[in-house]
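Still learning. Show one?

>
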Amino acid sequence: MNFVVLAVALPLLAGFLTPALGRSSRALAQWLGWGTLAVCIGVLWVAWARLDGGTVAIAIGGFRPPLGIVFYLDAVALLFGLAVPLMALLLWPREGTPQQFALTLVLTASATGLALSGDIFNLYVFYELTAAASFGLIAGRGTGAAQGAALRYLLLSAAGSVLLLAGITIVYLRTGTLNLAHLATLAPERLQDPVGLAAFALMLIGLGVKGELFPVNGWVPEVYGSVSGRLAGLLAGLVSKLAVLVVVRILVLIFPQPEAAQLMLVLGMLGIVAGELAAWRARDLRRQFAFSSIGQLGIVFVAFSVPGEAGIVAGLAVALHHLLVKPALFLLAERWGGSIEGLRGAGRGHWLASGLFILFALSLVGLPPLPGFWAKLLTVMGLMGLGTGLAWLGALTVMAATVVEAAYLFRTLSVLLAREAGYTSPGPHRGLDLVTASLAGLVLVGSVFALHPLGDGLKAMAAQAADVQGYIRTVLGDRAVARRGQREDRISEAHPASRGSDRPMGRADRAYGWPAGSPTRGARS
């Protein structure tokens, strides 16, 4: 399975070659990008087929973990890893320059690395590389608004990088390692305390810049409102989800204490409230979609804050739904940008685009049986199953946000389909934009008829992602699992309540067949 490294190495190599090739032929540079992305899709698809539901750890260069660089492959990592080159190909900058092609390839390589890496240091490197490529793509639009948005995004992202690095430093000082599997063996003894919680908070906020987490998401409306719909869809639909995926890996493997999940729940709720209310007040379509993205990412964080497999299932469902719907909406907004009132009657005569908008809006709101309904239902049920006041508040926040979301999306839809004329069309939607949005619509409708197999697949992924001992065994072997168990036993003897042995079993536990008082998040698959 060492060939999986090509999914990161090839886009990096092509990204360095593209500008030089573009000096002689822009078309050749574009074809190099398309070909590279197609090869990456093939590489990851073959890896998915060979994995066959298992897990694999790849030691880069033959150096054994925890000293060497490790890629960890499971179903979740390969799912998001495969989504990276696929979405980069679908949302390729059609009218871009060779420099923008190169930055898109670098973004693809770094985002794939975020999905596959099993070491915090390498996660940080790929995070910074993703940020650098994003800055260049945002500023490459050439307008003053885009360059100003890129500068503010750069400053906020730099602050987030400092916080992330501070959290990583604390973790390293307490443990002497940055390998995720090795950290999982040491965390019960060295990171389950206020200092460890502080490290998690710093890493959460640092990664939250990319994940559109409150309060470090102020860049979102400016950036998404000033770049092309394709780039906005790529950043909102994909890059933000990879940042959340990294947070979830860290939470499950290193910081299973309830305080860490509660912090993520609170910040997620604040993001929902801020994003949805701002979207309701927005009078520009792109800014409305940008603020809506903040609210949706808040729901993703809230869902993943639910302990165990229930939270991972709900979080994956919400994240994948947003990954599918939001880029398609930004593609539709490419022609329908600007003031919402100025779009009065714009949907009449453009029935395919209007139908797609209606479909995506209904799914975002959560109209059954569309996938958005099931994703929100899983989130609300998981929160209610915890039985705590904070969890109930989270469930009520998600339901209230749905009402607000329905209000502004249906208001926008009524403007688009208004009978009176008031819209001067800049031309029809680009054919490729409509084709891409239509593909997303077909996948959305098709998933309605495949809810049971999709649900079973998400549960299998969640069980694998929540299996801490399986992660350690895959990377470090059986002896490391035994050492972790011994550390947990020592902590349990000294502090019996620290492992949650007295926690009452909630409905979420019974729904997934967990025994009463499951000791840690993801300890069982």
